């Protein structure tokens, strides 16, 4: 009984520490105060100001850049990671283990090391840093996470289904699209969501590959804003909106996964 109470108390304290800052940001997004923690009455002015044309042009540009880069990087890394996972899965045990170890290095490696490495690579090759280099950098560090998301689905798949499809006259490409892809789709969706979140959240790699052509993402915008002595108040409603959207996507995704599980039970 004591252990159960202790475990539940520990869990609630952990959840409180994790989510209380987010709750505070959401609450103070409904007041006009420029300083977080100073409540001046309920208001939605910050939300209207956020979407007023021209008022925060640079912030909205940073948001658009962040979303488009994240979508491009997540889509490309999902395709590359899924293909790589299929290839790794079909290797011999020793080769699979070796490639799996190599795939884990970028994940365990520090972001700052990855950022510096990519920066030196782009400089040595002569690629002008900007939008393209940021997308390429995000694809680079997102792909290993997709591989890790897809591999467990391949291990759960019955390998005889693919062989049966080939025996029944399907081409390897038809078997891939009609057998393997449906089996690993949940892993691909999870990998896409993870890559999307990592890309939106990234700062260390982005700041080394963004160049000096005026391109900004949310992370670099917030960093530059903080160095000026404070954060733009409109960042509070923007953070609240992003949190709600991500939460809604997770709820829908989990609902669809649970529904699919019940369908096959």
What does this structure look like?
The structure is a single chain. The protein is an all-alpha fold. It has a domain at 70-216: MetI-like fold (Orthogonal Bundle), CATH 1.10.3720.10. Helix content is 78%, strand content 0%. It is built from eleven helices and no strands. It has helices at 2-28, 45-50, 57-89, 93-108, 111-125, 131-156, 159-167, 172-201, 204-209, 218-227, 235-264. Helix 4 (93-108) packs across helix 6 and helix 6 crosses helix 8. The longest helix has 33 residues, at 57-89. It is globular and about 70 Å long. Belongs to the binding-protein-dependent transport system permease family. CysTW subfamily. It holds the Pfam family BPD_transp_1. Residues 63-253 form the ABC transmembrane type-1 domain. It is found in: Cell membrane. This is Spermidine/putrescine transport system permease protein.
What order do the helices and strands come in, and which of them pair?
Layout: H1 2-28, H2 45-50, H3 57-89, H4 93-108, H5 111-125, H6 131-156, H7 159-167, H8 172-201, H9 204-209, H10 218-227, H11 235-264
Helix pairs in contact: 1-11, 3-6, 3-8, 3-10, 4-6, 6-8, 7-8
Q: Which tags fit this structure?
A:
265 residues, mainly alpha, MetI-like fold, 11 helices
Short summary:
The chain has 265 residues and is mainly α.
């Amino acid at each position: 009984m004591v252990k159960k109470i202790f475990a539940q108390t520990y869990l609630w304290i952990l959840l409180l520490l994790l989510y209380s800052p987010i709750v505070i940001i959401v609450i103070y997004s409904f007041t006009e105060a420029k300083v977080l923690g100073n409540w001046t009455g309920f208001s939605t002015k910050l939300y209207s100001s956020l979407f007023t044309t021209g008022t925060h042009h640079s912030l909205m540009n940073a948001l658009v850049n962040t979303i488009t880069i994240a979508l491009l990087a997540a889509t490309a890394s999902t395709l590359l990671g899924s293909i790589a996972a299929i290839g790794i899965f079909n290797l011999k045990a020793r080769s699979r283990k070796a490639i799996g170890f190599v795939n884990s290095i970028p994940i365990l490696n520090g972001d700052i090391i990855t950022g510096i490495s990519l920066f030196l690579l782009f400089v040595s090759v002569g690629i002008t840093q900007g939008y393209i280099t940021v997308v390429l950098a995000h694809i680079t560090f997102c792909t290993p996470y997709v591989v890790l998301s897809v591999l467990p689905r391949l291990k759960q798949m019955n390998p005889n289904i693919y062989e049966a499809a080939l025996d029944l006259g399907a081409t390897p490409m038809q078997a891939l699209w009609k057998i393997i892809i449906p089996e690993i789709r949940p892993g691909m969706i999870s990998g896409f969501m993870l890559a999307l979140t990592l890309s939106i959240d990234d700062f260390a790699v982005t700041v080394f590959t963004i160049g000096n052509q005026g391109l900004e993402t949310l992370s670099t915008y917030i960093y530059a804003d903080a160095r000026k002595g404070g954060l733009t108040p409109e960042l509070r409603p923007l953070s609240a909106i992003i949190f709600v959207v991500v939460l809604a996507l997770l709820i829908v995704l989990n609902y669809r996964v649970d529904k699919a599980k019940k369908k096959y039970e």
